[in-house]
Amino acid sequence: MSSLSIRIDLAPEIRVGPGKIRLLEAIAEHGSISAAGRVLGMSYRRAWLLVDELNRSFSEPVVEGQAGGRSGGGAHVTPLGERLIACYRAIERDATAAAAQHLAGIQGAVAAH
Fold this sequence. Notes:
Blueprint lengths: L7 E4 L2 E3 L1 H13 L2 H8 L3 H14 L5 E4 L7 E4 L1 H29 L6
Antiparallel strand pairs: 1-2, 3-4
Helix pairs in contact: 1-2, 2-3
InterPro entries: LysR_HTH_N, Molybdate_resp_trans_reg, WH-like_DNA-bd_sf, WH_DNA-bd_sf
GO molecular function: DNA-binding transcription factor activity
Protein name: LysR family transcriptional regulator
């Protein structure tokens, strides 16, 4: 079974791909960067660096931290972050549909492993 992996180069140093989008989705689901990192098998530092990179890449943050308190801090995906996820997933769906026939045409030539 073939699939597409989409990476969008928005500018020379600004890239968004499946890893960053999965991280944003995990933050939205779990409410924290550290929990999202654990779910995805990455260190908190790696997850935080990716979030920081995303936040510096856009005119406003895609993830915002929440101050700690009795129950601790957390993070949430902003409306811009939600829009980024939705647009990326729409591009991915459309590209997959457009490429399906071509992928099927080469899938049969893949050596069995």
